[in-house]
UniProtKB/TrEMBL annotation, chains A, B:
<protein>
    <submittedName>
        <fullName>Class II glutamine amidotransferase</fullName>
    </submittedName>
</protein>
<feature type="domain" description="Glutamine amidotransferase type-2">
    <location>
        <begin position="2"/>
        <end position="251"/>
    </location>
</feature>
<dbReference type="InterPro" id="IPR029055">
    <property type="entry name" value="Ntn_hydrolases_N"/>
</dbReference>
<keyword id="KW-0315">Glutamine amidotransferase</keyword>
<dbReference type="InterPro" id="IPR017932">
    <property type="entry name" value="GATase_2_dom"/>
</dbReference>
<dbReference type="GO" id="GO:0016740">
    <property type="term" value="F:transferase activity"/>
</dbReference>
<keyword id="KW-0808">Transferase</keyword>
<dbReference type="InterPro" id="IPR026869">
    <property type="entry name" value="EgtC-like"/>
</dbReference>
<dbReference type="Pfam" id="PF13230">
    <property type="entry name" value="GATase_4"/>
</dbReference>
């Protein structure tokens, strides 16, 4: 199995602290030695750094820890290969352009019968179940909506329905973003924490590192971190329920779908903005 | 204007030497301070590193110089902005998936009336003439060929025709690749050199650095470098003619189209392989 890390924030924020703990699982405290990647959205642009080597040994991973890239949305992944060889083409996150936006995707889990998921518009470059499922997901959304739909809830409902379909094929924990929204879908394991004023201290579970967020934030900052397993040992992380889709923007949950298809919009969210 | 750098090789080869000279033009010996990027194809996979800051000051660029990534095909670009702000979304190279392959593109020049180039399948993420032209190019190829055509010459002919159309809108020097072939199209300025046994020494024009290729190669290596301006001052670079398209594979020219549409295939090339 792989591990996922995501971030949504209302101000450009670096992920150095969380990523430092996370990458220790890439061949250090964890067994995920088969590559890693991290994607950043910055001012409407997108870039990712991917390496098919263990993150603990990677000079590129060290650069990411030392060179704070400030972003509203981050998606990261460390891999323990099950389907597909250890090579760059199979290294998450994957990306495709849809509706003039760079969509980014990372998956934790394993699917059965994924080869028969129908594809439209997008084709996999590598040979993993994960990338095939991504191409299926994007192709289905694009087939249903040839432009970004006026009503976001309709698109989110379609996304939740597609995620539920993929969950029926096995384990499908997902991070997905178009740079504005971060979508997190839980099949078996995802946890999240939202940090806001008054900020406190946090210490990593996987490395000897603490941070006092008061020293790195302003009172209006809201930063949420989502990960397969909680990354800190002194904070209360919330575990998502199987079948739950959360829609994040600016560090806060904008909408929530549960396994029965129930939908809730958080107060103050303008559904047509 | 921007500057372009490309490489095609028959063995995985690092581009550290050429890139070291090239990046000095990014705010050092040259005026191209508005970002840079470099893309590598490795074992069917693709990754790029892009930064909207000057390459001479970039810790990511230093990493690329110090961390030899070995590749068959490389495309790099340093930018002096004309159309579109200095930001990540406008930083070359650009990439899109077509036919299950990651296509990569970098452009030097400026186009008139590019806004009316028709788009199909692909939409720009940023707001440059370059990315719009890329989306036009890819969309036109995909519209004509819904799968990789049996006859490569037919696709190359279509690509040359589209490049000629873009050249009529202004200046359009191009590097394009699908990871197997490297396409170089000259509108005003591109030069190339092919290095093979017996290898000699080379010294950079833009930085105090020399290399003795004998120490870094085997007798069967063939490595070609293509750049806006020659990067070394002691070798004979060949300048391309306006309207010329070269198709590179494994470090050698496989086919050549000139401005009048004449087409030549090099001896030994198997046109249907």
């Amino acid at each position: 199995m792989c591990e996922l890390l995501g971030m949504s924030a209302n101000v450009p924020t670096d992920i150095c602290f969380s990523f430092t703990g996370f990458l220790h699982r890439g061949g250090g405290t964890g067994p995920h030695r088969d590559g890693w990647g991290i994607a950043f959205y910055e001012e409407g642009g997108y870039r990712d750094f991917r390496d098919p080597h263990p993150s603990v040994d990677s000079p590129i991973a060290r650069l990411i820890c030392d060179y704070p890239i400030k972003s509203h949305v981050v998606i990261s992944h460390i891999r323990q290969a099950n389907v597909g060889q250890v090579r760059l083409a199979n290294t998450h996150p994957f990306t495709r352009e849809m509706w003039g936006r760079p969509w980014c995707y990372a998956h934790n889990g394993q699917l059965e019968g994924w080869e028969s998921l129908p594809l439209a518009f997008y084709r996999p470059i590598g040979d993993t179940d994960s990338e095939h499922a991504f191409c299926f997901l994007m192709g289905e959304l694009r087939r249903r909506f040839d432009a970004p739909p006026q009503s976001r809830e309709v698109m989110w409902g379609a996304l939740h329905e597609l995620c539920e379909r993929l969950r029926r094929l096995g384990v499908f924990n997902l991070l997905l973003s178009d740079g504005e929204y971060l979508y997190t879908y839980c099949s078996t394991k995802l946890a999240h924490i939202t940090r806001r004023a008054p900020f406190g201290k946090a210490s990593l579970s996987d490395a000897e590192l603490s941070v006092n967020f008061v020293e790195h934030t302003t009172p209006n900052d809201i930063v949420s971190v989502i990960a397969t397993e909680p990354l800190t040992d002194n904070e209360d992380w919330i575990r998502m329920a199987p079948g739950e889709l959360l829609v994040w923007k600016d560090g806060e949950i904008q909408a929530r779908f549960n396994a029965t298809g129930n939908f809730a919009v958080t107060a103050g969210f303008n559904s047509t903005s």
